[in-house]
Specification:
The protein is built from five helices and ten strands. It is of the alpha+beta class. The chain folds into two domains: 77 residues, no CATH class; 105 residues, no CATH class. The strands form three sheets. Strands 3-2-1-4-5-6 form a six-stranded antiparallel β-sheet, with helices on one face. A hairpin with a 2-residue loop joins β7 and β8. The radius of gyration is 21 Å and the shape is elongated. The relative contact order is 0.13. This is DUF4376 domain-containing protein.
Length: 200
């Protein structure tokens, strides 16, 4: 993981984006019904709308705002003092970390004796699953999308555990390759263009 926790704000009123408090003007404005966007990977993001009650709406996936981040990087690279390659790489690695976290906790499907079911691989869900099965030959769990529990045998539980581990390892391997790809880039243009959202 990188040493930076991605943080940014976008203000429609002055068309300014701040990344780690550093401002730069962005060319493309936010939609007219949005006044302000803030994002902190440790807390999530908030969108402040002007066409509804003034209660922020939360989000976890910053994908809609990465184009603005690229604009900020291009503007900052042309500024004085300029964004350095080391700083640009650190920002893109911070973005990569966000999508590693998102993708390792995406739901996935496991085939067990009673059918194929989607399970939640989030850290909290995994801890709940396996805290409830210690020493048991079977257990009832509620897969994603269902309202009633299903019974999992010990063999089913092994399949689910194996799928959890396989999913986590696959995402980690992709993350490691993407991190190596980013570190191999040698120009600001290539760093700005790098898309961490695809290929998972």
């Amino acid at each position: 993981m990188s040493s930076l926790n991605l943080k940014f704000t976008i203000n429609t009123a002055d068309s300014v984006m701040r990344v780690f408090t550093v401002p730069a003007t962005i060319i493309n404005r936010l939609p007219s019904n949005i006044d302000f966007v803030s994002y902190d990977v440790t807390k999530g993001g908030e969108v402040h709308y002007n066409d509804r009650l003034a209660i922020p709406e939360r989000f976890d996936d910053p994908t809609p705002y990465l184009g603005y981040l690229n604009q900020w990087m291009a503007a900052s690279a042309a500024a004085t003092p300029a964004l350095t390659m080391t700083q640009a790489l650190a920002i893109k690695l911070a973005v990569l970390d966000v999508f590693y976290g998102i993708n390792r906790q995406m739901p996935f499907t496991v085939s067990i004796s009673s059918g194929a079911f989607a399970f939640d691989p989030s850290d909290l869900a995994v801890s709940r699953y396996f805290a409830s099965v210690t020493g048991l030959s079977s257990v009832q769990l509620i897969p994603m999308g269902l309202t009633a529990p299903i019974t999992l045998t010990s063999s089913d539980l092994q399949n689910v555990a194996s799928a959890f581990n396989g999913h986590d390892l696959k995402v980690l391997q992709i993350y490691a390759q993407k991190k190596a790809d980013l570190n191999a880039l040698t120009t600001m243009t290539a760093l700005i263009a790098y898309d961490a959202t695809i290929g998972w």
